[in-house]
Amino acid sequence: MTAALERPRPAGGPAVARDIGRLVVACTDGPGIVARVSAFLHRRGANIVQSDQFSTGPVGGRFFLRTEFHLPGLRAALPELDRAFADEVAPALGGTFHLRDASPTTRVALFVSRYDHCLLDLLWRARRGELPISVVQVVSNHPDLEADVAAFGVPFAHIPVTRATKGDAEQRELDLLAGRVDLVVLARYMQVLSGDFLARVGVPVINIHHSFLPAFAGAGPYERARQRGVKLIGATAHYATEDLDEGPIIEQDVVRVSHRAGVADLTRAGADIERAVLARAVRWHCEDRVLVDGRTTVVF
Amino acid sequence: MTAALERPRPAGGPAVARDIGRLVVACTDGPGIVARVSAFLHRRGANIVQSDQFSTGPVGGRFFLRTEFHLPGLRAALPELDRAFADEVAPALGGTFHLRDASPTTRVALFVSRYDHCLLDLLWRARRGELPISVVQVVSNHPDLEADVAAFGVPFAHIPVTRATKGDAEQRELDLLAGRVDLVVLARYMQVLSGDFLARVGVPVINIHHSFLPAFAGAGPYERARQRGVKLIGATAHYATEDLDEGPIIEQDVVRVSHRAGVADLTRAGADIERAVLARAVRWHCEDRVLVDGRTTVVF
Amino acid sequence: MTAALERPRPAGGPAVARDIGRLVVACTDGPGIVARVSAFLHRRGANIVQSDQFSTGPVGGRFFLRTEFHLPGLRAALPELDRAFADEVAPALGGTFHLRDASPTTRVALFVSRYDHCLLDLLWRARRGELPISVVQVVSNHPDLEADVAAFGVPFAHIPVTRATKGDAEQRELDLLAGRVDLVVLARYMQVLSGDFLARVGVPVINIHHSFLPAFAGAGPYERARQRGVKLIGATAHYATEDLDEGPIIEQDVVRVSHRAGVADLTRAGADIERAVLARAVRWHCEDRVLVDGRTTVVF
Amino acid sequence: MTAALERPRPAGGPAVARDIGRLVVACTDGPGIVARVSAFLHRRGANIVQSDQFSTGPVGGRFFLRTEFHLPGLRAALPELDRAFADEVAPALGGTFHLRDASPTTRVALFVSRYDHCLLDLLWRARRGELPISVVQVVSNHPDLEADVAAFGVPFAHIPVTRATKGDAEQRELDLLAGRVDLVVLARYMQVLSGDFLARVGVPVINIHHSFLPAFAGAGPYERARQRGVKLIGATAHYATEDLDEGPIIEQDVVRVSHRAGVADLTRAGADIERAVLARAVRWHCEDRVLVDGRTTVVF
After folding, report:
1. Is residue A231 less than 8 Å (CB to CB) from chain C?
2. Which among A63, A239, A259, A293 is the top mutation candidate for probing chain C, defined by the most C β-carbons within 10 Å of its own β-carbon?
3. How is C116-165 classified by DSSP, letter by letter?
4. What tens digit of pLDDT does each residue of B31-68 get?
5. Does D62 share its domain with D142?
6. What is the pTM (predicted TM-score) of this model?
7. What is the pLDDT of residues D181-194, one digit of tens each?
8. Which domain holds residue D72?
9. Which value does ipTM take for this structure?
10. Does the distance separating the beta carbons of D50 and A53 come in below 8 Å?
């Protein structure tokens, strides 16, 4: 009832302008990096639309750069642009770079157990074009959410996991995803993936943990939050690594709770934070905003 | 990947203990109100589980009380309890009271136009048992969301509204809802309901407005927020009254935005706040936590 | 430049109405507690102004009650009221109760090392009448802040502490405070008080820790927050116990930080949260809002 | 009691590295701006440490750039650098630019009436080296805060203002400040400065308004917030313009309040938000992070 004025539903995709490219650089800091990169882009007819940089220290620190540029005819020009950057600029910088067309969506597999809030939120945001992703597969160790996933037209694979079958299950998962995904998101997947899986899956894995890490790492964070009597509970999205809940943190947030909140209340309140934090982390990752710096991240 | 431990999905309903009753009182403040009420409940075998009260001033102020009590055999005892309170306590208090079994869910009709975020969030939460509501009807002036609603097994009525047909449309809505609902929620319904409708519908109407009221009341709040250059945007849930966006506020929240956020970004970020604020307002209303005090509310 | 209208500075004290008493009860839950307490107050001519209660479970749970009441002539009536409550009500409740006049300020000693932000904030608030406290003594293991404290007319005791002199120093502190204070506040006091001190000081001790506990308990929390790459930093006010940073939490809050924030930035941003959290904790404690429940607190 | 480890008080000044310069550009967007600017700095031996940019649209939009660079011997090199930029780069950009040494502190005059919280907070932050400012003058229309200001060694001018004397008072203020300040901060100054004063003072004026603008512009915002029953109250720092409370917003924040909060409680809770918001706005302004874009600001 807020107004007679009505606006149409947002069209089927995020506002990705055509001919927008992204360049991400991570190297040792030194003089003239920005000058070199921007001169290169300018010579090639690209106009910088947005640029962020960060250095851990001017002398010998680690340097990170993320640049969005507009270049008419980007798609056709990209291979040559990549080659030219590799030849003309990269050697002087050292480090690594990544140059890509900003328009393609990221192909994502979602892993889930039985809680539906993160899964539904990501599927829904993808459908309404809020996230630059296409969900190509859902994997679950439980059958519960099959119908919900089917309603979004996404394949659902039920792969049960027991202690005895874990190796086989992970192999099935790897076979299922091979070559099909750019990112795996653990949307409240209550199984610990092995270091072997993480090494072989070949794409980043983002996990949502239902606590404000490093507090309450591991099992039962809401129960332990209740016992400790904290006044805020939180959620943490991080890259999964072999060390459980120790990977580089992408995003965190918290919500205030009182002594009246039992574990069920914490679980409910926390669910809202979990889905919000995970959605932000996935968006930032897919927009190439998250650069890993050792155990931490730079988020542009 | 947070833990090997796995908990089942919450069962189909919020944690409503049986035999819990609720008593809400609004009257002029004066000595002994709590004593009278609690003595009455104690005499009748009820044990107070939770009690909140608020007075705008000890002498002649307005007094508000919300009490949850446990009474074995509540359902059968309720009619007599109500009669006894009306006879023995209410006359001394003046004002109004409301005594009910806490367990029945609130029957809700959702009104929506084309934005789906508030609608889906409430349907998800209702299905998950997070809100003590059952959605019995969705009404929309557009057909767009029919399939989404059907997936939840909820009837969807498409009732178009034009300037010329508004009176007829509202009559159809009133006919459709008559006797079937305890609450109407405007979940981004972009039509202004008439004062006549509000008077005749006979149940409270909660609206979500996409600004931090009283800032940006009326149409186009995100556009106007952008123009004014505010650093936070918000959402407000309030009871709908004949004065557009002037009804008693139940809940508000905000999110930080930067100069980089265009109207589309504000709309997307705001959507998350809108659905969170609306869900809280609906829950609190259905738990009898919201007492109207003139143009404002007391929220216990 | 916000308005031509000008309001005088708030008068020298918080808005404590005269003749307001407070009753705090902690006992095992059972039927009729509120009825008994409110009937007692009503019989004695007291009108309940505000009442909060909380139970960890209706059958055998722990029950907590905080009631503010208005009783003309409270001060004179208090001794007899206390005796009557002890005779007529307390035996049936079991547990503990505390009945007092709400108007006297709490006598506070502040312990501080070299960081001034928490100390000054509390002194400012006390002077402005924002906190119901009177600061009667500042104790520091460094001389740095003596002049700042003197400007408020508060005695400053410089009591250095080394490993060798710690026992003597604590004895001097105990002698200095004996009978003069109702509360000790560690306002960034960087010495660990011994269990012996805590046992003998005879009043509650509130500490501010510069992290979101249980994350980063112990030394160097900002350094460790930086290393772990958390996206929010926090502060925690808690009752000091023999187990460092393990006492019942009274209040916590956080602030968002980015990868750009070095340890100095975290320290600066954190200081604002520390002083805000500590001020709230002190206020709530002095208003009898904080009830300890094992390792946690109930905050009414 | 958080740790035995003790760190010394921060030294007397913010972490301003020597030889750091700042370049701020505002112009119409077009290709190659970043390339031109960064190539110029590189040629001159400057290394970009931090750079932020924003464009309202790639074709004909407004473009904003803020760059921090390291240049050995900056102070001596600055005049020539400025001239060279004006000759070699600025003509191609159009618009305006500003090039300066980052190390000098901003000379600030604080205007205040009787509320002390914003004044004390800024004086204290300046003293502890948290803000890159030196407060050179306090002006007040009341004598109340003279002793507090004296304790910081800052001159205090009591200049009463009445309707009849306003013109004379403003003239005295202009005479007092002429050539001595780079910024005026209205730290809860309850007089409306005339357009004539704002035009003639010749430096930016930052005001703190005690509401979340545009809600509750003008007088009595806390009273009106109470009447409207909002669930959050806020504060807004903005550049003062002739249109009261309509100037470009620099920073805003809010805090949650409940129905229990009377006007005195709102005033107290709001004071904490006011001082925090104002301190951030002053810091960002003095670090050249705030660029005015019509009625709004870009904050890097």
Report:
1. yes
2. A259
3. -HHHHHHHHHHHHT-SSEEEEEEEESSSTTHHHHHTTT--EEE----TTT
4. 889 999 999 999 999 999 899 999 988 778 899 999 99
5. no
6. 0.94
7. 999 999 999 999 99
8. 20-101
9. 0.92
10. yes
